[in-house]
Amino acid sequence: MRRRTAAQDSLRDLRRAQIIMAARDIVARLGLEALTIGALEKRLGFSRGVITYHFRDKDEIVDALLASALEEIDAATFAEVQAGATPADKVRAVLRANLRGFLEHPEAGLILLSFWGRISSDPKARRANAKLYAVYRERTASVLAAWKCDRAALATVIVGLVIGIASQVYFEPGSIDPEAALEEAASCVIARLESAH
């Protein structure tokens, strides 16, 4: 078996990235249903063979697309959480970080919304969605360690608040002030934590 050279690996990585970026654009603008190998051929000027050399089929492209959206949003979250001076500051920071991950990466958020619309009929979308929520709940629960509460339940509520705010911003741009909604959510969560402490 011939070993691949660094140049071949680099070209492979470039082509895969180009295919994923084109797929992201198609899904963010037109929805998951519009993502086809033919649409990618047209968008990229690549042959079907080039696309299927890098990705076996549409399902593999969808998996890579979803992973890239999750990574993009995830990379934007939790960097500032550990810097919070007090437990209340950390709660505010985790809410803000989660929301910023969605709002600063609208294309990734729209891709996720496209998947959420399919969770009732698509097992892959359901598993990916469950993974996303599990990560956010776990990280959020870890920030609540200083409080006496059912951390898993409260983490679920916090994640629901953030995704609810982000969804409203996506669906009704300009209709709500996400910072004001976020501050109200943080105040409610902190008041609940302080009353149980």
**What share of the residues lie within helices?**
over 70%
What's the end-to-end separation, in Å?
64 Å
Count of DSSP strands: 0
Work out the radius of gyration.
Answer: 20 Å
Following the backbone from N to C, one meets helices and strands in this order, namely HHHHHHHHH
- Structural category: mainly alpha
**Can you give the mean pLDDT?**
83
Named at the architecture level, the CATH assignment of the largest domain is Orthogonal Bundle
Query: Looking at the structure, what is the overall shape?
Result: elongated
Low-confidence stretches: none
Q: Main beta sheet: strand number and arrangement?
A: none
Domain count: 2
Beta-strand share of residues: under 5%
> Considering the protein shown, what is the CATH homologous superfamily of the largest domain?
Tetracycline Repressor, domain 2
Determine and state the CATH class of the largest domain: Mainly Alpha
Number of DSSP helices? 9
The name CATH uses for the topology of the largest domain is Tetracycline Repressor, domain 2
